[in-house]
Amino acid sequence: MATETASTGAPPPSLTFTRPVFAKLSPHPYLLRTLSPDSPDQQPTRNNGRAPHQSRPIQINTSSLSQAHGSSLVRTGDTTVICGVRGELLPVTSIPQFRPHNGTLYDQDEDDEARARKELKDYDLLVPNIELATGCAPQFLPGVPPTTLAQTLSTRVYSLLHGTGVVDGRELRIWYTPETKKEDGDDMEVEGEEEEEEQKPEVVAYWVLYIDLLFVSFDGNPFDAAWAAVLAALRDTKLPFSRWDPDREMVVCRKGQDRKLSVRGLPVSCSAAVFLEKEHAEVGKEEGNRHWILLDPDRSEEGLCKEVITVVVDCSEGGTRVRGIEKQGGTVVGRELIRGFIGVAEGRWREVKEAMGN
Amino acid sequence: MTVTAAPEAALGVLPRADGSAKYSYAGYTVTASVNGPIEAQRRDEHPYEAHVDVIVRPAAGVGATRERHLESILQSSLTQIILVKNFPRSLIQIVLQVEDTPENDYVNTKLVQASLDFAIMPALFQTAVLALLSAGVPMRATATATAVALVSQDGSKTSVVDPSPRDVEIAQSVHVLAFTSQDELLLAESEGDFTVKEWDEVYETAKQVCCRPVPTKEGMEMVLDDEHTSGPDLRHFLRSTMEQKVASDLHWK
What is one GO cellular-component annotation here (chain A) (predicted)? Predict the structure, then answer.
């Protein structure tokens, strides 16, 4: 550039930057400027061209991984995440502290459901893991242990999986009913009662679902994308037909008779970040510090916001049920704003439901 | 299954740390130490504000993903109440050691669990705030936190403040809310299945516990306390603990 000015000579060195350069140099004032336009007829927009309450459209593809029992690929803007669900068999003999099941195969009561829920947790039948791939965003370096973000995300996914109970633990049980031996007639009368006892069906193994998530590209709002991917992959999961072979003492699976995993409800998560007018404001004087709630923030916006809110809602059973609220890092979002945000999340729920396909 | 014992706290329990506190309530005992402002590591250094580092150590085993999540929640909340702008490029380190957790009598559950433990969060929060006060770290406000579980019994829902592990297990939904001393909502974490209306009720209950107005001198607060004791008065507890500590420290005068 210097040589250019030297050669032409005429234009004086100017201090005007192009918009991207300015956005990179001082991101906070830049975003503030675009959010508060000079004239009232201009709509406030973000750097990425969206309105504050506008989220990125979501695209969901399923069954793209051939080796997994269920898989999904979710895209929201430049955030792309792949999720694969793989079922592995866990015989009860390899569970430490296994407590034999005293229910029966056809129990459909609430107690059994609660027990199944506990089994999921106690025997770790759902194992989510999140990997933020090297290169999906500049801040993730190769060869480092999982970052705090990755660990936090997998805990959140784990908590939400158990908290919402989307997977029915009863479907992961593998039953076996011992056959009655009829040939030895002499002992029949003596051991009649015992035989009766032995005929009860028992759980011999469980399916463990390994839910692996890989961020291919990371551009903010990782939890919403990750949760949508988990949900889509679970809805896509088909477990092979399996039965206990008493002779070989192992579980055998049969090809071609896959059973679809039923997923209860459709909880959808919706996140936003709170952008404050004064980045380094005098603390304790928050009156007069304007704020904007940016729905579905991207990576550059997440870097500028401290307060974040995530709401998980499920409207699939008529009324709106809230399945989780996470709000931290600030005091702007109070009771009224959370209430209003649940309404915003309902809108997002409809978008995601549409993208899920049914 | 409400906890009858009042919360207990001791300040300055660790002689070498800048500030420390030990807090026990609802079966949880947590000790915290605070050091700061100290020199920050190069990668944590922020040109305009202090970096707040929170380390949570579980009662048994080493910290895993769950502790990382707890740390990130506490870190983002405490950064809001500490005057971090006063100490650019430095570090305030808070170490929380869980000493005791209530046992679940019903089952022999696993020692290490991956899901977020809601019931422990208020204890960690309160201990951290007490230790920060003990260390004399400038703060713009204090904060108090409480856990509320909604348990459905015989068709009706009851809210349990400071739930036991058994309550959390059978609860429909569990909530943790933290309020600053200016009555602002600092932290809200909820899990389970609930409606907006139920959340509103939980909000009211939690606010009752965390932000009860400072009792007046007339003695009428005793009557009020008996009327709706839905939990301890945490703000008053924080205040009286500090008052006691100051009084005993200035005893020589």
Answer: nuclear exosome (RNase complex)
Residue where the block lists tokens 């809200």: B188
Contact B188 A325 (CB under 8 A): yes
Residues A250 and A115 in one domain: yes
Is A256 at the interface with chain B, CB within 8 A? no
> What residue type is assigned to position A336 of the chain?
E
Specify if A255 maps to a domain.
yes
Given CB atoms, is B247 within the 8 Å cutoff of chain A?
A: no
Nearest CA-CA distance, residue B172 and chain A, Å:
9
SS3 assignment, position B142: coil
Within a domain: A25:
no
- Cβ contact A333–B185 (<8 Å): yes
Residue B35 and residue B87 in contact, taking contact as beta carbons nearer than 8 Å: no
Burial of B228 (0-12, 13-18, 19+ CB in 10 A): exposed
State residue B62's pLDDT score: 86
A322-337 pLDDT, tens digit each: 999 999 988 888 899 9
Same domain, A309 and A249: no
Q: Does B78 touch chain A (CB under 8 A)?
A: no
Which residues face A123 on adjacent strands? none
Range of the domain at A300: 268-356
The token duo for A312 is 């998980």
The number of folded domains in chain A is 2
Shortest distance between the Cα of B19 and any Cα of chain A, in A, equals: 23
Give me the percent of chain B exceeding a pLDDT of 90.
58
pLDDT tens for A61-106 read 999 999 999 999 999 999 999 999 999 999 998 888 787 766 666 6
Domain assignment present for B3 = no
What is the ipTM score, two decimals?
Answer: 0.89
Same-domain pairing of A241 and A347: no
